[in-house]
TrEMBL record:
<dbReference type="Pfam" id="PF07508">
    <property type="entry name" value="Recombinase"/>
</dbReference>
<dbReference type="GO" id="GO:0000150">
    <property type="term" value="F:DNA strand exchange activity"/>
</dbReference>
<dbReference type="InterPro" id="IPR050639">
    <property type="entry name" value="SSR_resolvase"/>
</dbReference>
<feature type="coiled-coil region">
    <location>
        <begin position="314"/>
        <end position="355"/>
    </location>
</feature>
<protein>
    <recommendedName>
        <fullName>Resolvase</fullName>
    </recommendedName>
</protein>
<dbReference type="InterPro" id="IPR038109">
    <property type="entry name" value="DNA_bind_recomb_sf"/>
</dbReference>
<dbReference type="GO" id="GO:0003677">
    <property type="term" value="F:DNA binding"/>
</dbReference>
<dbReference type="InterPro" id="IPR006119">
    <property type="entry name" value="Resolv_N"/>
</dbReference>
<feature type="domain" description="Resolvase/invertase-type recombinase catalytic">
    <location>
        <begin position="1"/>
        <end position="109"/>
    </location>
</feature>
<dbReference type="InterPro" id="IPR011109">
    <property type="entry name" value="DNA_bind_recombinase_dom"/>
</dbReference>
<keyword id="KW-0175">Coiled coil</keyword>
<dbReference type="InterPro" id="IPR036162">
    <property type="entry name" value="Resolvase-like_N_sf"/>
</dbReference>
<dbReference type="Pfam" id="PF00239">
    <property type="entry name" value="Resolvase"/>
</dbReference>
<feature type="domain" description="Recombinase">
    <location>
        <begin position="116"/>
        <end position="225"/>
    </location>
</feature>
Amino acid sequence: MYSEDHSAKSFERPAFIQLLAFLKKSKGRVDLLLFLKWDRFSRNAGDAYGMINQLNRLGVEPQAIEQPLDLTIPENKIMLAFYLAAPEVENDRRSLNTIAGMRRAIKEGRHCTLAPKGYRNARNEQNRPIIIPGKDASHIQFAFEKMATGLHPVQEVLRLVNKRGFNCSKNQLWRILRNPFYYGKILLPAYKDEEEASIQGQHEPLVSELLFNEVQDVLDGRKKNHPSRQRQKEELPLRGFLLCGICGKQITGSGSKGNGGVYFYYHCRCGCKERFKAEEANWIFEKGLHEFSAEETVIDLYMKILEDRTRLSVPDKQKALQELQQEIDKNMARLKEAQQMRLDKEMDMEEYRNVKKTYEPIIKTLTDQQKDLSQSSMEVSKYILPCTDLLKNLPGYYANATLQGKRLIIGSIFSGKLIFEKNYYRTTGVDPVFEEICSTSAGFGGNKNGTFRLNFEKSHEVPRTGFEPVS
């Protein structure tokens, strides 16, 4: 006797495969195969007829205990067809009901299957199934933030999240970074005449839509911000921002080994004799940042002006939102009219699809504009506060920043290259906004030629370590 608990949708069942092997080996010694009902034999009519023929060639008669049929009587084949087709029809109906139920749930913004990484399945107060952020949510957010910088390939981001304790393969991370579910959308697959759609989910997003789109730009190659091939050194934050005061070519930096350790220098890459100690140049630059930090009252005034300029008055904002809503309603009405014409067979499917392709992008664009306008004041305020803090304590931020952070600060202040000579820096390019805010500072001045001089005085306070090699 062989028993199994696998579905009868196919004959790829472990126990049945063993039984078939036994029947082939015992050909001529077995003449009857018994099972409870025909739907336990198979729930697929086509497969069932093929297996009946195979068993007959082995001299075995399949027979249901509760639904016996004498297949030598031609009329009983009608009953056999019914017994075999009924469970297949039942399966198909159950499948259709499941698909319809899942699509209805997705259209309502509900996730129907196992929670993806970063979430967990739970139940709300009405005992309805929901998904909520899980223990890995912070790792997912970290991965998106790192990827959005454009400085790390997927393999490097994978190494960083694995180091944090997030168990994930490269393919899984790639699918996570591509999945709109993490910014609140659920993908509704195309089905029959329905095209694929993106539905606003009821779950809590782990990342913003802006961050998700930035990651897509990086993955698609539209955003490239990769570091230079030359490995950056903590001791050389100014490398890449300096020009030679003698020949005007770019200055690089490197370390020299000597008694007591490695000593770093900035030097010209074109062979001229321009060469100075990185430790002193870095210290003078950092010291000089204290001289052109603007007063707090000036920064607060500029931030207030910026906030006021980016915030619409309440009546103007409401009017703009109303106008956008009117445009959305007008285009939605056109789309619904096309749907009605399709239902009344006044429009063929190809024409209807063309109408959808025309109006759905318009509606999405208008909806996004409406959303951006609703959140504009909040978003600006969110970014203004950190900028204010940075400008008020620029030297402190720079001193405590990572190498990448220091380079971002330098690049944000100076649009041109720096030249270091006689214990001060000069440049021809300063960010105009920064220049305006800090124009009253004692350490920041310009001349008629458009050259800005940063009066960073050298001091005996420059730290020394080890025994510096003779140069």
